[in-house]
Amino acid sequence: MPAANWIRPEAHGIYIPPADCWIDPARPVDLALVTHGHADHARGGHGRTVATPATLDIMSLRYGVEAENIGRATPAPYGETIELKGGVAATWLPAGHVLGSAQILLEHAGERVIVTGDFKRRPDPTCPPFAPTACDVLITEATFGLPVFRHPPIAEEIAKLLAARQANADRCVLIGAYALGKAQRLIAELRIAGYREPIYLHGAMERMCQLYQDHGIDLGDLQPVAGLPKAALMGQIVVCPPSALNDRWSRRLPDPITAMASGWMRVRQRARQRNVELPLVISDHADWDELTRTIEEVNPAETWITHGREEALLRWCELHQRKARALAMVGYEDEDD
């Protein structure tokens, strides 16, 4: 009998028939179990949403509970088990991806299945670390599932950023970073590196940074760019959404050094396409070595692969005599990682 035949990968999400629920569904359902707050995993319109308290706060900020876009919300703190119908138990465990991100451990009929959602293994001052957990089936992402993707230490990338700022006192450094997770991690790592000056924010970043601070993540002195003259931003660090790097908004800044914080900056063509002067290889996803190490550490009977470069990781599993399958799922986008 196939492992975990009570879980059914569908094009628009992972369906759990005994509990009649979905994990990270791409369309509205009656009951959604959500791994984290990025828009390709957390969507509005569900009848009931179960997620960590921080993820529910993120969804509320983005969609608005009052507008009934989330539906009835059930908080699932890390480590607490929720009993679903059909004899299915679900436990949310840290994934190390962004604030509130979780793996979901499903237990039914004597089997254990881990759905990782998105995850990383590197230390991150803005969220709890990934918790390796034994299971029969591991459903893993493969966003950076190619051997070319081996992320450098983040301290090296932060040092490059600070050196560029130091060498260009008459310019600012404008960093494109995803509004949830990447921006806050970047700011926190700058603080760890000793940068104590104000960091300036595009208006689209302010509310999410405030939410992180409300959850006890110290990001230091953050200031809005709005209303400041160019001269006030000379020699400063400014954080904006990737979409704002080269649009009209950026023209108000003093000759910005355009930077981008993303695992995709390992690919030079992507940096050139975005006109990025200072590529920063900073990722909130596991790289190739972390993906393969996680499979070895968890040691599942089967590995199911989704979200990205499935073929290479599938081949690695085959070469290491590990049973695996690729899940052809839609609706998951490349984040501006």
Name the descriptors.
Metallo-beta-lactamase, Chain A; Rossmann fold; 337 residues; single chain; seven-stranded mixed beta sheet; alpha/beta; six-stranded mixed beta sheet; 7 helices; globular; 2 domains
Which helices and strands, and how do they pair?
Elements lengths: L7 E3 L2 E4 L4 E3 L7 E3 L14 E4 L1 H11 L8 E4 L5 E3 L5 E6 L7 E7 L2 E5 L21 E6 L11 H13 L6 E4 L5 H11 L6 E3 L4 H9 L7 E3 L12 E4 L16 E5 L6 H6 L4 E3 L7 H11 L3 E7 L1 H10 L3 E4 L11
Parallel strand pairs: 3-4, 4-5, 5-6, 10-11, 11-18, 12-15, 12-16, 13-14, 13-15, 16-17, 18-19
Antiparallel strand pairs: 1-2, 2-3, 7-8, 8-9, 9-10
How does this structure look, described?
It is built from 7 helices and 19 strands. The protein has about 325 residues and is an alpha/beta fold. The chain folds into 2 domains: about 10-150 and about 285-325, Metallo-beta-lactamase, Chain A (4-Layer Sandwich), CATH 3.60.15.10; about 155-280, Rossmann fold (3-Layer(aba) Sandwich), CATH 3.40.50. Strands 7-8-9-10-11-18-19 form a 7-stranded mixed sheet, with helices on one face. Strands 1-2-3-4-5-6 form a 6-stranded mixed sheet. The protein has a 6-stranded parallel sheet with strand order 14-13-15-12-16-17, with helices on one face. Helix 7 links the parallel strand 18 (about 300-310) and strand 19. The longest helix is centred in the middle third of the chain and has 13 residues, at about 155-165. Residues about 330-335 have low confidence and may be disordered.
